[in-house]
Amino acid sequence: MELGSVISLSLYFIIMLGIGLYAYKASATGVSAYLLGGRKLGPAVTALSAGASDMSGWMVMGLPGALYLGGLSNAWIGVGLVMGAYINYLLVAGRLRAYTEIANDSITLPNFFENRFEDSTRLLRIISSVVIIIFFTVYTSSGIVGGGKLFENVFNANYEYGLYITASVVVIYTLFGGFLAVSMTDFVQGCIMFVALVLVPLVALGEVGGVEPLISTVKAIDASRLDMVAGTSVLAIISSLAWGLGYFGQPHILVRFMAIRSLQDLKVARRIGMSWMIVSLLGAMATGFVGIAYVAKTGVALNDAETIFILLAQLLFHPLIAGFLLAAVLAAIMSTISSQLLVTSSSLTEDIYKAFLNKEASQKERVMVGRACVVIVALVAIAMAYNRDSSILQIVSNAWAGFGAAFGPMIILSLYWQRMTAAGALAGIVVGAVTVLFWIYAPITVNGQSLSQLVYEIVPGFILSTVAIIGVSKISKPPSATIKEAFNQMEAVVAKG
Questions:
Q1: Domain boundaries, the chain
Q2: CB–CB of 294/204 below 8 Å?
Q3: Rounded CA separation 293/273 (Å)
């Protein structure tokens, strides 16, 4: 590893830790500030924080790797994500921001679910918390896997050391700075990712001679990689597009909508966020695609397709610039890990500890418990990441589907259908999560393909969850007058804002 790259990466770490310390004073004032930033995020921070925490290491490692191996047929995932993110801004963001504040100022999703449906049994809060804790711990491990691979490939360091270094830096600034630190670091990391995902494919394209030589080289290797439908089926395309459904149920993205300072800021946030996302996704896909021609032309060794971005950054740029570009990989990884750690910690603190173990816990005590939970979840995720052969894209795919199916239909219907009940919500969470797990692990094959290979598990999970919510809600007791009043109040606020 060149000295210049070490300097750039060291500077990046210092900046992240500095932001964490800067945010410490504000986040230490209370649990709402620590877990939700006091609902004071501006539109730019909201947009880039949501985008950076969403995209994670899979955008600079998993997605380029998929394009490198399969060509343009894997671009459908990007199309589905853009559609899903845009619809999420339009349908969910404003109503969720308004409703979570009206519903007793709910600062976590499980807390909102309990308040929205007046669930006296508390089952809704327990089950949703368990889903968040399980799936997010798995999801966090995917980011730590990415950190381990980065240090292994760049520094020739032990993979396990990479896991601990990546997790340690994230834990420190998340531990002290809370939601404000996570959001501010996400903003900086989003900017770094944006520049890197524009710069790397453009320079690599110049190295292979431009667009025409690129296409000619890829065609000579495998012409099917130039065809978006080659080797795919209708079900495969639907599965890729269905990634967009996951947005409606991702707690680490939805919490950004809950934290924005006003409904008026959402339009600006949407424009910034979608512009960032489209350019970044195109850059990530272009990196993998141009990498096909670059590797073929130069004959360089690429042992893991998911490290194509790292390879191009190291070979094409001065060490100081390469260090900055490699910081983009860390930025993508850390932005998601920190968001997931904080959401999982908030669920453990507010929805388990305070709700069931110590109802009289003070603000200071809850912040302390939240910080302890950050460390605990990180350690579990590190243990799960010890399998260095884990596919980042596969881990993310499973967790994304789990959240999308368990929470997606519930979030949408809870914001638009007044008749929805607590029993219906509970049925939707359980059916969605169980369907996804069954689809992934059931020993059932169709023409030699597992259920998950046949169609992405979020599709049946989302459909069956929706059916369960509607069916159970219709046969259960209608909502109370206070629930109807709160729902109408939310609609009135959204109409004005």
A1: 3-391
A2: yes
A3: 31
Q: CA–CA separation, 65 vs 82, rounded Å?
A: 19
Continuous H helices in 299-419: 308-316, 319-346, 363-384, 392-416
Helix (H, G, I), strand (E, B) or coil at 260: strand
**Is residue 14 scored above 60 in pLDDT?**
yes
* 346: three-class secondary structure by DSSP: helix
CA distance 121 to 179: 29
Dihedral, CA of residue 130, residue 131, residue 135 and residue 137, to nearest 10: -20
Phi-psi category of residue 270: left, alpha or beta, with phi > 0 → left and psi -120 to 50 → alpha: alpha
Q: At which residue do the structure tokens 């980065």 appear? A: 150
CA distance 470 to 462: 12
Please, are residues 427 and 466 in contact by the beta-carbon 8 Å criterion?
Answer: no
Q: Which of 249, 236, 237, 273 is nearest to 400 (CA)?
A: 249
The DSSP string of 350-372 is IIIIIIII-TT--HHHHHHHHHH
Closest CA to 9 of 323, 328, 335: 323
* Placement of tokens 């946030």 in the chain: 269
For the whole model, what pTM was predicted? Answer: 0.85
* Tens digits of residue pLDDT in 201-229: 999 999 999 999 999 988 888 888 888 88
Calpha distance 44→268 (Å, rounded): 8
C-alpha to C-alpha distance for 310 and 293, rounded to whole angstroms: 16
Structure confidence by residue, pLDDT tens digits, 44-92: 988 988 888 777 667 887 789 888 988 888 889 889 999 999 999 999 9
DSSP class of residue 301 equals: -
What is the spatial distance between Cα 48 and Cα 27, in angstroms, rounded to a whole number? Answer: 20
* 126-138 tens-digit pLDDT: 899 888 888 778 7
Angle of CA points 445, 453, 228, to nearest 5°: 140
- Coil, strand, or helix at residue 41? strand
Nearest to 255 by CA among 342, 328, 352: 342
Amino acid of residue 346: S
Please provide the DSSP assignment of 411-475 as one string. Answer: HHHHHH-TT--HHHHHHHHHHHHHHHHHHHH---EETTEEHHHHS-THHHHHHHHHHHHHHHHHH
Looking at the domain that runs over 3-391, which CATH code has it been given? 1.20.1730.10
